[in-house]
Design brief:
The protein is an alpha/beta fold and 677 residues long. It has three domains: 320 residues, Alpha-Beta Barrel (TIM Barrel); 134 residues, NAD(P)-binding Rossmann-like Domain (Rossmann fold, 3-Layer(aba) Sandwich), CATH 3.40.50.720; 125 residues, FAD/NAD(P)-binding domain (3-Layer(bba) Sandwich), CATH 3.50.50.60. 29% of the residues lie in helices and 17% in strands. The protein has 20 helices and 27 strands. The strands form seven sheets. The chain has an eight-stranded parallel β-barrel, surrounded by seven helices. The protein has a five-stranded parallel beta sheet with strand order 15-14-13-16-27, with helices on one face. The protein has a five-stranded parallel beta sheet with strand order 18-25-19-20-21. α9 links the parallel β11 and β12. α3 runs parallel beside α6, α13 packs parallel to α15 and α13 packs parallel to α20. It starts with 9 loop residues before the first strand and ends with a helix. InterPro entries: Aldolase_TIM (IPR013785), FAD/NAD-bd_sf (IPR036188), FAD/NAD-binding_dom (IPR023753), NADH:flavin_oxidoreductase (IPR051793), OxRdtase_FMN_N (IPR001155).
């Protein structure tokens, strides 16, 4: 398929973009790592070589008080600018354009020196900010200007001024966080003064041929956020001050509404940028949950924006643009919006990467160079680890044969794709299967590997995965006791009254699956799902309600009255405490919407005709359920490992370690082995 809108050039005042694709801002923590700027230079260069028209860097603070964390990279001195030159030179040598994002965290900074328009603590931060004096406000503006001037000296083609997501500029704009009585607070004209002064003073200092992007919060999604009229008033004033591009920001970080997670239908918020676009004449960039060319093309064709911004999709595949342009969409390694290796790791202080592409942000370290000694390698197991290893090793020139005892590839991914909100796993499987074919991997389905049919190979990789762990429980042999694999393989249908033993990631997935069984659409979500999603989470996409909020709590209309579901765990911690930082709260909220009862400190006694007998504390209870689903972990499937004695054997994925099994670690392990074998 061709994408005429996506690949049409765009003329700015002094620049021309080769296509309508922007690589959006994305902090990787390389900015603070040893030799990090050298690594970032290669990271960005590969995305330019992959066809990206314009890059915006991760957020760089203009001063220490505006940093997100104590050691965050700054653009405050000439020495800071010197560090960035290798990035801009690398991008320009590859023929690309790059803008540096200036991000002042305000009350979102995770350190004791944070500042804000008012001393109001953020609900996601333990620190109370210092309220800026009027003189200090002017000083902060000076630091923004200084950062822009230094970015220009460092060779950047422009800057993006971060005015959304609840950061400092956004904090000045709304009464929720700005309760000042001076010229920087009060009515809207005063509250937007901070943003406008920053833009005006930067433009004076950098001249007309320096790109200015303003990241406008188009939908705050928090109480006492901006009205749509205020958003448009600010957009028009920003345009009048000479901004070249308006980028869309959706939601503050403290909002309790999903905006970028996998359960958000693709391009949900593009209609917001379309409404803003009707009121300004400068190009509009739209963002959030655009991960495939068909979606991007449709957004542009529908007049929702002039450009599309994608961040995580370029972690997943640096060649995204070239593949789309060269009619190789089926070979795009798609971002599945899981956040596991990118945002979750960044918030833990680790380097960002990507579940589907562990090489992301590790381009100087993890490479798949052609091998000087091609080998015949047998891979046993066609799950995430086996498929990933096969692709990477075949890419290096090894001859790979992949054995899978089931009738289809995928392993545990075939379970994941069935979970409501995880339909992007279909794309992951599509990429794997097409890439295996591209690299001439021989695939043997319905084949049980043995030492005999592996005898002719130089080396063997066991990626045989896991089996569900059985539970030692009186009555566990009752027909009503089943494993999560029985349910997700559709061997057994979920009952209407269910107790789920185990509240880890799989337990939550099974609860989601059971709660929406017979009602969920698990195929990749269409535009028709957007209205349902907005209704579920109380989002007003018509923008008639302040900040885009219809109500203060999520909608529970999806709850099915005829279902009773218990999600149980032995631990005393809150159910779901171990889930991922950026998405765990969403999963818990969704199960609450579905009426799932979550119980901790549960001791399992027995199963009988009455149901599941448990103790909570010392109090006995009987859960009168028709089905008990066991999600009590997995065990490595290693029955083949002792039979292979004549070749080197490598064990990866769940076969290597079943505890806390996830596709992220399985694929990373596979990639590291493939790079070295």
């Amino acid at each position: 398929m061709s994408y005429p809108h996506l690949f049409s050039p765009l003329k700015l005042a002094h620049w021309q973009l080769s296509n309508r694709v922007v690589m959006g801002s994305m902090h990787t923590n390389l900015e603070e790592a040893d030799n990090g700027f050298t690594k970032l230079a290669q990271f960005y260069k590969e995305r330019v070589n992959g066809g990206v028209g314009l890059i915006v860097t991760g957020g760089i603070s203009p001063n220490k008080v505006g940093a997100l964390a104590p050691k965050q990279a700054l653009m405050a001195t000439a020495e800071d600018a010197d560090k960035h030159r290798q990035i801009t030179e690398s991008v320009h040598q590859a023929g690309g354009l790059i803008c540096m994002q200036i991000l002042h965290a305000g009350r979102y900074g995770f350190h004791s020196a944070i500042v804000a328009p008012s001393a109001i603590q953020a609900p996601i931060n333990p620190f109370i900010p210092h309220e800026l004096t009027s003189q200090e406000v002017d000083s902060q503006i000076d630091d923004y200007v200084n950062a822009a001037k230094l970015a220009q000296q460092a060779g950047y083609d422009g800057v993006e001024i971060m005015g959304s997501e609840g950061y400092l500029i956004n904090q000045f704009l709304v009464k929720r966080t700005n309760q000042r009585k001076d010229k920087w607070g009060g009515d809207f004209n005063n509250r937007c003064r901070f943003a406008l002064e920053i833009i005006k003073r930067i433009r004076v200092q950098v001249g007309e041929q320096f790109i200015l992007i303003y990241r406008l919060s188009m939908l705050d999604l928090v109480e006492d956020g901006a009205t749509f009229d205020e958003v448009i008033r600010l957009a028009k004033q920003v345009e009048a001050l000479g901004v070249d591009l308006l980028n869309s920001g959706i939601g503050w970080h403290e909002t309790r509404i999903p905006t970028i997670a996998a359960m958000v239908p693709r391009a949900t918020f593009a209609q917001v940028s379309r409404q803003v676009k009707q009121h300004v004449n400068i190009p509009i960039i739209t963002s959030n949950r655009i991960n495939m060319p068909d979606t991007a093309e449709q957004v542009l064709a529908n007049g929702c924006a002039d450009l599309v911004s994608m961040a995580r999709p370029f972690l997943a595949d640096s060649e995204w643009v070239n593949k789309a342009k060269n009619h190789q969409t089926k070979l795009i390694n798609t971002c599945i919006a899981c956040n596991q290796a990118c945002l979750d790791q960044v918030f833990e202080g680790k380097l960002a990467s990507c579940l589907v592409n562990p090489r992301a942000a590790h381009e100087t370290e993890l490479n798949f160079e052609p091998t000087k000694q091609p080998k015949k390698i047998a891979v046993v197991g066609g799950g995430a680890a086996g498929m990933a290893f096969s692709i990477y090793a075949a890419q290096r020139g090894h001859q790979i044969s992949l054995f899978e005892q089931q009738s289809e590839l995928g392993g545990q991914l075939n379970f994941a794709k069935k979970i409501p909100g995880k339909s992007e796993f279909y794309e992951m499987l599509r990429y794997f299967k097409n890439s295996l074919a591209l690299h001439n991997v021989k695939i043997f389905l319905d084949t049980c590997a043995s030492s005999e049919n592996l005898a002719d190979f130089d080396e063997v990789v066991l990626a045989t995965g896991v089996i569900p762990r059985a539970i030692a429980l009186d009555g566990a042999s009752y027909p009503k006791v089943v494993s999560y694999a029985d349910i997700l393989s559709e061997k057994v249908k979920p009952a209407n009254s269910v107790a789920i033993i185990g509240a880890g990631g799989i337990g939550f997935d099974v609860a989601e699956y059971v709660s929406q069984f017979n009602t969920a659409n698990v195929e990749p979500r269409a535009e028709s799902d957007i209205a349902q999603f907005a209704q579920q989470w109380g989002i007003d996409l018509s923008l008639s309600s302040r900040a885009g909020l219809k109500r203060t709590s999520v909608d529970k209309s999806g709850q099915q009255a005829n279902k009773t579901i218990y999600l149980l765990q032995r631990k005393s911690t809150k159910v779901g405490a171990g889930l991922a930082k950026t998405t765990g709260w969403i999963h818990k909220a969704e199960l609450n919407q579905q009426g799932v009862k979550m119980l901790n400190e549960v001791e399992y006694q027995k199963v009988d005709e009455q149901g599941l007998h448990i103790l909570i504390g010392k109090t006995p209870q009987i859960l009168a359920v028709d089905q008990v689903i066991v999600c009590a972990g997995q065990e490595s499937l290693l029955n083949l490992s002792d039979q292979i004695v004549h070749q080197p054997v490598h064990i990866i994925g769940g076969a290597y370690k079943a505890a806390q099994l996830d596709a992220k670690s399985a694929i990373k392990q596979a990639a590291i082995l493939a790079a070295s074998i």
